[in-house]
Amino acid sequence: MRMASFKSVHDLLLIGFHEGLLDEEEFLLLYQQYTSLNAEYPYTSYPAFDLELKDEVECKTEFRVEKNDIPGLADTLRIPEIVKCYQGTICGREEASWILLKRFAYPCRYSDLIPTFGRSVPELAMINNKMISLIFDIHGHRLTEWNHQILHPEALETYATAVSNKGEALTNCFAFVDGMVRQICRPGKNQRVVYNGHKRVHALKFQSVALPNGIIANLYGPVEGKMHDARMLGESGVYNNMRQFAFS
């Protein structure tokens, strides 16, 4: 059974008050009770997303992807033809891909996407999160496990040569370990566990192995913000893999 939206409830309350079914006190109480805490955006005044209305320059600028590359990207990522969210919202895979790309092209709020896609903030958020889950479920192992497609011996030798040619003293350095501290809201409990003393914020930490071509070869996390980088490296198992595949 589908729940009525706040707008439909508001309309019913107005009709009930106009016809005398509710007095002023009842109307005000119910109207406030069924008022959304989120800002209301006029998303219905914008047309649905139509890729044909955008030219090549707009696509490259707004989404950082060529207009004609999306079908191939969706095939490669194995995105289903219809992306369905848990509460029933459906979206074609190409539009869902554009929503994901727009969201990650540069920092923006979901409300900033409304003029482009003509959808409400909750819909945009659910579609974006669904796409992230789909991609991670299918391809997450490429980051969380040793990826032999980009970390086979021949590729590692190419990476090490590129690093050495840039002036590095080591001839067997093929990747760089880097950490990321992502700030979070202060939790109500166990605040010290996620407090990062270096950045002085409550946070979650990630650690990645970046290749010379810019691709992330391995991603570990999230872990509590207080954890030291050296401990993260030991627990991730990346160091042992590097020793196994590094060149002598």
From TrEMBL:
A Pfam family: DDE_Tnp_4
What is the protein name for this chain?
Answer: Uncharacterized protein
Q: Which domain of life is it from?
A: Eukaryota
Q: Name one GO molecular function term.
A: metal ion binding
Q: Which cofactor does it need?
A: a divalent metal cation
Q: Which UniProt keywords apply?
A: Metal-binding
What is the phylogenetic placement of the source species in the record? Eukaryota, Metazoa, Cnidaria, Anthozoa, Octocorallia
